[in-house]
């Protein structure tokens, strides 16, 4: 559970980029199955600082969206992103291959094109999808994003979907403007994510009539509890797993065992699969 060699300053963008792109990590990243299927999604794991905070003591935060009641998985924290739009994202992917784009400014792009050709073929498409969705959901400025590297894909448990996360630094943009899909933007300091006392067992009671009989009505998940003034959120599920992979690769941090943490309770109603449509 140690936070690794960068615990004091929570790493610069270059340190994060180096940690993500060590040769040994490439074996765990594959995009060979990427297609235009709705079962494939790309998301951005955004790192930045909150408005009103500056200087070395402010530290980096993980920037997440809280899903609105109008979409699936309402109330969950998630990375901005979504499914591939074949025509638009293919066009945007071509732009990302041009000199000066956030992708071609990535120092590892040339090496990936030589040593990781299958991934390099699909990386512009996945990155384009995440940038487009970020612009739509929270008015993320795609030209102000610094690409740091990809993370291994994650399979959703309740939905037939595979998520490809892209780690990005947002050096300047501190304010975001959400669309109807997003209730609000949540900033979680990295230093809080590295504190084992902020983890819990999320005990979920499932009240979904169509939920498969083979699944229990109560499930336990390791989660992170975020509290800031009057703000209280639970980070769990696929986004939690994406964050934990990131913390492991960059900081050498592993969360505590689920048996050793306190229990927080939640309920998944039928609208969890549909939103309030």
Describe this structure in words.
The chain is of the alpha+beta class and 277 residues long. It has one domain: Nucleoside Triphosphate Pyrophosphohydrolase, CATH 3.90.79.10. Helix content is 24%, strand content 27%. Strands 1, 2, 3, 4, 5, 6, 7 and 8 form an eight-stranded mixed sheet that branches. The longest helix has 22 residues, at 117-138. It starts with 12 loop residues before the first helix and ends in an 8-residue tail after the last strand. 36% of the residues are buried. Mean pLDDT is 87; it is low at 1-8.
Compact summary:
The chain has six helices and twelve strands. It has 277 residues and is of the alpha+beta class.
Helices and strands in order:
Blueprint: H1 13-20, E1 40-48, E2 61-67, E3 77-78, E4 81-83, H2 86-96, H3 109-115, H4 117-138, E5 146-150, E6 154-155, E7 162-169, E8 182-189, H5 190-193, E9 199-207, E10 218-228, E11 231-235, H6 237-251, E12 263-269
Parallel strand pairs: 1-7, 9-12
Antiparallel strand pairs: 1-2, 1-4, 2-3, 2-8, 5-7, 6-7, 9-10, 10-11
């Amino acid at each position: 559970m140690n936070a690794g060699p960068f615990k004091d300053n929570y790493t610069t963008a270059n340190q994060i980029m180096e940690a993500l792109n060590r040769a040994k990590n490439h074996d765990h990243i594959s995009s060979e199955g990427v297609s235009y299927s709705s079962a494939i999604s790309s998301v951005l794991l955004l790192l930045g600082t909150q408005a009103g905070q500056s200087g070395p003591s402010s530290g980096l935060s993980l920037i997440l969206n809280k899903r609105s009641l109008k979409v699936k998985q309402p109330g969950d924290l998630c990375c901005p992103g979504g499914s591939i739009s074949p025509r638009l994202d293919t066009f945007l992917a071509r732009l990302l291959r041009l000199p000066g784009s956030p992708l071609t400014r990535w120092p590892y792009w040339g090496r990936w094109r030589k040593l990781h050709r299958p991934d390099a073929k699909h990386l512009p498409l996945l990155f384009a999808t995440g940038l487009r969705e970020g612009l739509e959901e929270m008015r993320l400025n795609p030209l102000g994003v610094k690409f740091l590297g990809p993370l291994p894909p994650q399979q959703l448990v309740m939905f037939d979907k595979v998520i490809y996360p892209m780690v990005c630094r947002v050096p300047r943009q501190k304010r975001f403007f959400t669309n109807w899909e997003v209730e609000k933007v949540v900033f979680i300091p990295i230093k809080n994510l590295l504190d084992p006392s902020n983890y819990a067992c999320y005990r979920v009671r499932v009240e979904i009539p169509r939920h498969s009989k083979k699944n229990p009505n109560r499930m336990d998940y390791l989660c992170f509890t975020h509290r800031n003034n009057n703000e209280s959120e639970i980070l769990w599920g696929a986004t939690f797993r994406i964050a934990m992979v990131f913390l492991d690769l960059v900081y050498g941090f592993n969360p505590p065992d689920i048996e050793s943490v306190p229990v927080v309770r939640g309920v998944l109603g039928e609208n969890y699969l549909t939103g309030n449509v």
